[in-house]
Amino acid sequence: VQLVESGGGMVQPGGSLRLSCAASGFSFSNYDMTWVRRTPGGGPEWVSYINFSGTITRYPDSVKGRFTISRDNAKNTLYLQMNSLKPEDTAQYYCVRVPVQYRNSWTLGPKYDYWGQGTQVTVAS
Questions:
Q1: At 106, is the pLDDT very low, low, confident or very high (cuts 50, 70, 90)?
Q2: DSSP-derived secondary structure for the chain
Q3: Which of 21, 25, 31, 24 lies closest to 93, judged by CA?
Q4: Residue 15 pLDDT more than 90?
Q5: Edge-to-edge strand order for the sheet containing 9-11?
């Protein structure tokens, strides 16, 4: 299993970034996926979820209306469009797979198995 994120960088408050995650080594279209962020000294915070078919998405209140998760199963790629970025969005962002036994079960709480290496997003003026 490989998950490779890209698209991070530094942006001013109010700006936008689009993260991508190239997946390989497994049947991407069979798995729900998430984006999770971590800050130094902080625990993981999930920031978006999408089910295997792309028909269901979920967001925490902290990013709802600003972030949009999407996927292209034909390209084995996951995306995160981030708009109206705030300094508190600064973090390392990870593409994370949800275990197949928890498909369509996000209401049970975040479940993770494989993580990418992460991409840094810094929001500062």
A1: confident
A2: -EEEEE--EEE-TT--EEEEEEEESS-GGGS-EEEEEE-TT---EEEEEE-TTSS-EE--TTTTTTEEEEEETTTTEEEEEE-S--GGG-EEEEEEEPPGGGTT-GGG------B---EEEEE--
A3: 21
A4: yes
A5: 9-11, 119-123, 91-97, 33-38, 45-50, 57-58
Structure tokens at 8: 């991070």
Mean pLDDT in residue range 76-95: 98
Write down how long the chain is: 125
Kindly list the distances between the CA atom of residue 79 and the CA atoms of 12, 50, 90, in Å, as whole numbers in the listed order: 20, 10, 18
